[in-house]
Each structure stands twice: as C-alpha cells, then as structure tokens.
Amino acid sequence: MTSWLKRIVGGGVGAGVSRLLGRAPTSIWCLHRFVASGDPWIGDDVDVVARQLRRLVDHGVQLIPLADAVTPDPGARRPRLAVTVDDGYADFATRAWPMFKALGCPVTVFLTTAPILERQWFWWDRLEQALQACAEPWYDVDELGTRITRSASDGSWALHSLKEALKVVPNAERLAILQRIEASLASTISATAEAAYAALNADDVLTLSRAGVDFGAHTVNHPILSRCTNEEAAYEISRSVDHVAALTGRRINSFAYPNGARGDFGAREEVALRAAGIATAVTTSPSHPDATTTALRVPRYVYSPCAYSTAASIFGFDWANREATV
User: Fold this and answer.
1) C-beta of residue 299 within 8 angstroms of C-beta of residue 28
2) Does the predicted TM-score (pTM) go above 0.70?
3) Under CATH, which number does the domain 3-119+193-321 receive?
C-alpha cells in the first residue's frame, strides 16, 4: 500500500461498523473557502481538493448529492461521499465550481444571506480588517479578558482564539464588542466587503443554481443560534430560508447550523426549521449518517487536507487495503 493510502485509511472504525452491518459508509464533507496559486486569502487549494476527490473515485468512492447522503442506503456496497460548502464566498464561483463541475461532483452550498444581499462583510473578516488600524503589536479585548498579538514577521494577527471566543458570546454582545473594537481604533472600513472577502452576489447564485448547484440556508448574519434570543433565532432561520428561495427561484429544504457543534443549536432551532419547511439540517459533528441519524442533526466532517480525517472515514475496507498507486 502506498504511503498516501496508508495515511487516509487510518483505523477505519466507522467502516468496520458499517462492514458488520453489511453496508458501505456514507460521509459528508464541509468546506468553506477555496484558493488557487496567488490568491490573497486563506482557503483550501482547489487542485489539492480535486486530486483527493479523483483518488477517492479511483478507489471506488461514489460522489452523491447531499439528499442521497442523508438517508443511508442499506444496499450500498461502495463508500459514498457528499460535498457541502458553507458561507457562500465568491471564490466558490471562481475557483470551486469549475473544479466540481469538471469532476461531475454534486455540491450543496449553504448561504449566509446578508453578505450576499447587502454586500456586507462576514463578521470575522470585518474584525480582521478593523485590526489593521491598530498601531501596537497587541490589542486587548477587555470584555473577554483576551490579548491578541501581531506577528513580528508578517504583521498578521493571531486571531483564532479571539474568533472562537466571540463565537460563543450572546449575539448582541458579540456585535457590541465588534463595534467597540472598530470605534476604539478609529477604523474606517468600507461598507462593502473588499473583493478578496466578498460573498457571491445574487446573479452568481441564480447562475449557479441553474447550472446545477444545490443551495441551502445558513442564517442571515451567521450567529451561533443557541446564543440568540428566541426572536433572533427565528428570524435568522426563517428569513435566510426565504432569502435563498428568492435568490434561486426554488424551494429550499436544507440548512446548515453556524459553527454546527453540539451546543450551537437545540430543540428550539429544530422547531423553527420545521416551521420554515426545512427537511434536512447539517452539523459539524464528525461522524457518518446512519440508521440512528435524525434529519435535522446530520453529521459532517470538516475538510482537513493535512489530517485526512475525512478521507479516513470513508476507507478502511479490505478492498482498500490492497496495493494501489495513488
């Protein structure tokens, strides 16, 4: 077996369970941004993603739509993979869709609608831009008791911990903190997101929908729903579903929870989703859909090209352990 295949086979626990049940596993990937050589933003290299998908297909993995992945097929004898993309950055149209189309890979894109309809920044990108006005090598976010620092080598901010902290504060508090940061730095950010941070526009969504891209909703402003009031959560869900339906001209029946981890949503959100006509909602709980999966808590693996954890979730069968050139 080649070293690449050894790395992605891993322990194969999920595959082993599926083998006992007499069926092949299904996995769902969650991606976000896409880059090609020279792009000034961080994301997954489209050439790497394409190469990995081709290798999976070469070894018997079937690429399927999300709708087919939600309900396990008892008769499936080949591993199956559905691909989803969250947020709706413009680089999906320019970078990812040509790649997925060439591979014949179905894809579902979950749209955060305010950046599309109002050309707003995603809040985490706006935070990064605001901090560019800071002249010091550090910045204290007093509300969170957090100090972030700037790299001496390239001037970039170590923002991961701050972003994670901001995710989990109540929605209104997060917005207030962001506004305070901008005001304290006298930051002057354009109302419209710069090209490298832009979302898809309405024309992009309609064109992609007509070309075969499946779209779902991902809230209006991307808050953690469990940190919202009842009114905020209901608005974020129902209005984003209406927005995506209007943008695509089609009925929307799928939704992705922002962040999507356990504790980021609950029974309240499920009630709101059913009221909005949503049949399927996806999480970021790393597991396979199986006979115990509920339709509004469908697990996904967040794509990781370094760890190959998502690919390992597919392989693990005896047929995959033979010698192969990949």
Assistant:
1) yes
2) yes
3) 3.20.20.370
